[in-house]
Amino acid sequence: MSTLSTNITAEAGSPHPTILVVESDVLVRLVIADYLRECGYRVHEAVSAEEAVAILQSPEVSVDVVFSDVEMPGTMDGFGLARWTRTNKPGTEVILTSGAERSADIAATLCEAGPLLRKPYPSQDVVDRIKQLTAKARRS
Amino acid sequence: MSAASVTVLPRRTPPTILVVEGDVRTRCLVSDELRGSGFKVLEAGSAHEALTVIDAVRVDLLFIALDLPGAQSGLETARLAGARQKPIKIILASLDGEVDPGGLGPLVRKPYPASQVVGLVMRSLNWPAPA
Prior knowledge:
- Chain A is of the alpha/beta class.
- Chain A has helices spanning about 25-40, 50-55, 80-90, 100-110, 125-140; strands at about 20, 40-45, 65-70, 95-100, 115-120.
- Chain B is α/β, with parallel strands linked by helices.
- Chain B has one domain: Rossmann fold (3-Layer(aba) Sandwich).
- Chain B has helices spanning about 25-35, 45-55, 75-85, 115-125; strands at about 15-20, 40-45, 60-65, 90-95, 105-110.
- Chain B has a 5-stranded parallel beta sheet, sandwiched between helices.
- In chain B, helix 3 links the parallel strand 3 (about 60-65) and strand 4 (about 90-95).
- The two termini of chain B are about 25 Å apart.
């Protein structure tokens, strides 16, 4: 029996990549998380970068792709989360999204492979990016 | 086999549960358990998020922590949600020492087994366990 004092359910053997959606707008998060689940992905949700780090630090949770907004409340934004992830979880891919032109340009520089989506993005574009990244990860 | 001999059973749409919890790992755990039991689960990390979802989406059951971050308590949020969307089932989660407000719905004490929440949700919605 799992209790709140134990860790999040182990995900080993999951046939689909696990995506962590980080988005402070609840309705945007709801839509994209729902779409990704419909596509067969296991999806965790975080309201902020701080929540995302808490999930990524859970030893039993294995996240394949972080899909995060750039603009977020709190002490860490999407860029900070991308840096943290690359440093602490090098096997985890990051896709950033932004509605701000300037942030989009900065993110394109920050992300070596340029995995960036400008808002508003079609949900299928997110799936296509995830497929590209996870296929690349499997090859390397 | 002729087409006339095939019986198509009606499929019930899974009820939608809104999990409102400020602790992300707790929210993640409970939501995962509920999804594993066949429910459609939405997540909110605060009172503001919960009411935004309630105003936008049909929710069948609200599972809400009383100890939410921010100025608005889980209890106040549950009352507002109940007034905005009817009918809606409500289950409350409280820390030790918090008083059961009574009247809104069943209450579970933290830390609770996630399976206890799933069982309570199934009973509240009269929803059968997955085969």
